[in-house]
């Protein structure tokens, strides 16, 4: 990676707590991102990496959960690590309280459990159609053939958008997240910032055309609702949203909702393909399906959530100073044996499972209910039609990292002949 020569450690960093960890290319990330911190946790509950200007990493559930909830000490840092700035504010993800509160209050009604359940029947139809599109050829790649189309369908229903827009949106969203991390690693943060800005501008240009269309022809969708919404700016005072704010919110919802959900679906199938004995539980009933999906989410959590220290704070044996950057790794939290018995293995019957795959505190994932419904539908409908499958052993699994997450490049499956017959 590109790193200025001669960099020294900050005075408050003890060399004993230093690990040269790269969230883009470290061997731990390229091997299996959710398990990246398993070997580091015991010797380094909290460590400092001097790469990309320097940042801390927490590896224990207790510390990570507390930091998620402590937004007084750990503020939002939406640029990610590597620290590549976005072209504009990430609303509401990049806001702290009190600015964050009215935005959260405005958007929450669109992401309730009830709203998520309304999507379920349509998503089941989409899932079955996608399975039908590849079942005859006896193979599929889960992310591209199944997971992304399902997540994109959910987004399209919410926004009232044509499916024709999704290929361009998906490609640009990939550039914003994964492409910018690759450029930062190879050519430095300055070039990555320019790369991210160019991709974001193109993404905004597509989404911004939708706002005037909805002003002329409103519908029963989120964009139309945001046009009519008013943002509280003071007690008893509110204002309408600007077109730029609506576009920015839609862009963030697309990037955060589609890829992250599709990535978790990919991780789920990666595990289930290698563990056929656990597939039967997927069809054991709604309660067991939800429990199984929650466990797969715990085991496969993959976000490297960035925060910035707002004021000096002590975590374990280290002191973090104001303006230090911090990674809260949901995978490290989910696989901490002090919090979960048998943390390194999957127990689809696990009863107590307070994982942090969706974060915690005031910034807990806005679309958590919807994402969970999408993942349950994806897993259940696939297994209803294709109970037998395995990984394509001729295609090695590799991973790609963004500035705040990492996912499989591809999960290629070979569908058993009996599976094709069953689906037919």
- Gyration radius, in Å: 21 Å
- Specify the CATH class: Mainly Alpha
Low-confidence stretches: 418-424
Strand content: 5-15%
Spatial strand arrangement across the major sheet:
1-2-10-7-3
Cα separation of the termini: 49 Å
Largest sheet: 5 strands, mixed
Helix content: 40-55%
Q: Helical element count?
A: 14
| Average of pLDDT | 92
CATH H-level superfamily: Cytochrome P450
Family: Belongs to the cytochrome P450 family.
Keywords: Heme, Iron, Metal-binding, Monooxygenase, Oxidoreductase
Protein name: Cytochrome P450
Structure description:
This protein has 14 helices and 14 strands. The chain is an alpha+beta fold and 424 residues long. The protein has a single domain (15-423), classed as Orthogonal Bundle (Cytochrome p450). The strands form 5 sheets. The chain has a 5-stranded mixed beta sheet with strand order 1-2-10-7-3. A 3-stranded antiparallel beta sheet has the order 4-14-11. It has a two-stranded antiparallel ribbon with strand order 5-6. It is globular and about 60 Å long.
